TrEMBL record:
It comes from the Bacteria. The chain crosses the membrane at residues 28-50, 62-83, 90-112, 118-141, 153-176, 182-201. It comes from Rhodobaculum claviforme. InterPro entries: MFS_trans_sf (IPR036259). This is MFS transporter. Keywords: Membrane, Transmembrane, Transmembrane helix. The keyword Transmembrane applies.
Length: 213
């Protein structure tokens, strides 16, 4: 209780300044924005792709439930791998894999189109692979962002969550507007976000060393 900070405007302002001036934290926040951004792209565009491209709008909830189950499974995989590989290394690998999978699907769709139902099967497999990476990134990224902010954990978590969500919306809205009746804008947006997140996260050190006074 003696370490609890009072809820005052000055305290909130100081927390915002501390979070936004920490390079490590803001790099991870930018990475989170890219990660959330690609998820928002999926959530806003996937229903249209299912309806317009594959004529499966009625069964979309069931297919998406399957994707969600895959995402949940990835959390279990993350729990078994994170202690061996480290949070940053695992997230970097996940973003790299997601970028590669997106590029491969994009090339397949544009250069080697598959007849139905194989085209839908390829897209569904791609969605499962992309959402599997969610469990290997978001929890680890949040933990990385919070490492230097333990002394203001509550306020820092609120600031980090707000900034990353705002950034994600700013990323997802323009990509959503590019929808052209094909999965191409969606997949290209995910590939770009994953690639940028991979590059950003590589600039963050694996372990955080607090500054000595």
């Amino acid at each position: 209780p003696e370490r609890r900070r009072p809820l005052r405007a000055a305290t909130l302002r100081a927390a915002v300044v501390e979070v936004t001036t920490n390079r490590r934290v803001m790099t991870v926040v930018a990475t989170l924005s890219l990660g959330f951004g690609q998820m928002f792209i999926f959530l806003s565009t996937a229903p249209q792709v299912f309806a317009d491209v594959f004529d499966r709008q009625d069964s979309f909830p069931f297919w998406f439930a399957g994707v969600a189950m895959v995402a949940g499974l990835s959390g279990i995989v993350n729990a078994s791998l994170v202690m061996q590989l480290g949070m940053r290394r695992l997230a970097v690998a996940a973003f790299a894999m997601q970028c590669v999978v997106s590029v491969v699907f994009l090339v397949q769709w544009l250069a080697f189109p598959l007849p139905e139902p194989w085209g839908f099967a390829a897209f569904f497999a791609y969605m499962c692979a992309a959402f599997f990476m969610v469990g290997l990134t978001f929890g680890n990224l949040n933990a990385l962002a919070m490492e230097p902010m333990g002394h203001i954990a509550g306020l820092a978590a609120a600031v980090i969550g707000s900034l990353s969500t705002i950034g994600a919306v700013l990323i997802a809205v323009p990509v959503g507007q590019l929808y052209d009746g094909t999965p191409v804008p969606l997949v290209a947006g995910v590939a770009l976000c994953s690639g940028l997140a991979f590059l950003l996260l590589r600039t963050v050190s694996e372990s955080y060393t607090p500054a000595t006074p």
